[in-house]
Amino acid sequence: PSEVTLLFTSYLVVTAVAMLITNWVSSRLGAKKTLIAGLILIVLFSAAAGASPTISAIIGFRAGWGVGNALFIATSLAVIVASASGGFAGAIVLYETALGVGIAIGPLLGGTLGELSWRGPFFGVSVLMAIALLATVVLVEDIPKPAHKTSLSAPLRALRHRGLLTMSLTALCYNWGFFTVLGYAPFPMKLSPIELGLVFTGWGIFVAVFAVFGAPRLQASLGIARTMYLNLFAFAIVVLVIAIWTTDRAVLIPAVILSGIFIGVNNTVTTQAVMTVAPVERPVASAAYSFVRFIGGGLAPYAAGRLVEAINIHVPFFIAAGALVVGIGVLEIGRASCRERV
Q1: pLDDT tens-digit readout, 73-87
Q2: For residue range 307-321, what is the model confidence (pLDDT) as tens digits?
Q3: Cα(256)–Cα(254) distance, rounded to whole angstroms?
Q4: In angstroms, rounded to a whole number, what is the distance separating the alpha carbons of residues 332 and 227?
Q5: Cα–Cα distances in angstroms (integers) from residue 95 to residues 73, 80, 91, 176, 208, in the given order
Q6: Alpha carbon of 120 to those of 39, 49, 164: distances in Å?
Q7: Residue 237 C-alpha from the chain's centroid
Q8: The whole model's pTM is what?
Q9: Which of 73, 96, 186, 254 is most buried, with most CB under 10 Å away?
């Protein structure tokens, strides 16, 4: 399991570091060419992972895949915001809707392909992203390059703003909890690929529904800050339940599925909050925020694997619940710097 968790770690840590160069690249190539470059890398490296003879080789190719992922993620949000006719908030919901649909369908498709061969999901990703590449080339209009080229240091300098740093560190804590559940909870479930796919399809449906419908309603009634506090606390309770009953599948599986509710809400609300408090251009804010949050997401699964080997299977989830509580504390400490906007 600790080797398998490196598939998350190599991918997400490289994605995080590569986020620092995405604006430098896109401000020189333009958004469409950057999307195309990212998609080409994903197609090539996912296919190479499917053809790999060992886990070590897959881990290496996942790192290259992470570079493509960074180019695509950072640029796609900016393209959607620039192209959508429903305003900034509508663009965020549209973005999260697309992610939610993919998150809901992906596990079932991956589980189905995984029943045929462990290589199937990797080749499936390559085919799907090749379709996305073709669609981008044909359908996405060219967006004018920025008036000025972004420096390599721009995302790191943006983190000097306390509001953006607060949201980024909160997201790091959240992602530690999120990716501990996503990266390690499947092991104690002891399910077949298709069964695991069905579990995470249920999880993904909750992510999609609450990202699109639940988050906007909570935000309208409670405001961004209160929604984040309530949501992080509720997610911490669910992860605590997972920590206590990790080996009881009757509790573990429903708890993991229900965690999709809080992940869906958090994804939408946090993305909007980051874009609201950031005093810099949105692509730069997105890159800075993603750099910090993916560090947490990348390290958590590997840390979970090592903690299980050293202590027991419950400890990583207790730490994940604690990380979410720390996230609440970080948000409260730093909130004063962005109170006017959040």
Answers
A1: 878 877 877 776 666
A2: 999 999 999 999 999
A3: 5
A4: 13
A5: 10, 7, 6, 22, 11
A6: 19, 10, 39
A7: 21
A8: 0.85
A9: 96
